[in-house]
Amino acid sequence: MDQAVKKSPPAPAGLSDPTPADPSREWNLIWVCLRWLLRLFCASWLRVSFSGVENLDLKKGGLLLINHQSYLDPLVAGVWLPRPVSYFARDSLFRVPLLGALLRRTFVIPISREAARGGSIRAGLGRLDEGFLVGMFPEGTRSEDGVVGTFRPGFLAIARRTNQPLYPVGVAGSAARLPRGALWIRPGRVHVVFGKPLSLQERQQLLDSKDDRASCELIQGRVAECVAKAQASLAE
Question: Cβ of 217: how many Cβ atoms within 10 Å?
């Protein structure tokens, strides 16, 4: 398996594969093959670049809180990371032949809109405790104009219950690559900024505050800072 991982297109300078506690748990043939293909696509067509990866502790779990501009965001936010990111997806997708098996083998977490969300929250917390990176999009939907929208409080149920780091992540350029209603992905640049994890003081604010709006605004502000840096990088 190690040989298969090393054959993937080389990650940008500064990234190398950490040694997880249980490589067989995080690396499987499907994920390795997909990573190879997606890295090739992102390097040649989307020209995805990143900064701030040194802020991530890639040997433990962490919650990535990401702005949402395009359906490409889960791909571009995680493609150059040397570990898989567990995202949430509608449980109905898991019932689609082949797609469901693919989602399970790429560590996606099912979430139901009809049933109580407690099971999805427990699944997300379980992944974090196991040492996985878990990705969430607190806006809940794609931004209409690229500006970071109001964060919905649903993500706080996980953010307040985990002891793992909380990382703000900003994506810029993905909306232009795959706008709403577009039928194909347009070539161009995308930049991703991984921010520093929330400080102990900020974490305590989340735990102490009973005002979900203030808590959302706190993290939304951190994510917006990352987006601004990503946009500045694209403008250079």
Answer: 14
pLDDT digits (tens, 9 = 90+) for 38-55: 999 999 999 999 999 999
CATH number of the domain within which 122 lies: 3.40.1130.10
SS3 148: coil
Give the domain range for residue 158.
24-179+189-235
202 inside domain: yes
Whole-Å CA distances, 5 to 20, 79, 134:
13, 13, 21
- The separation between CA 63 and the C-alpha centre of its own chain, rounded to angstroms, equals 8
pTM for this entry: 0.85
List pLDDT tens digits, range 157-194: 999 999 999 999 999 999 999 988 888 999 999 999 99
* Domain contains 11: no
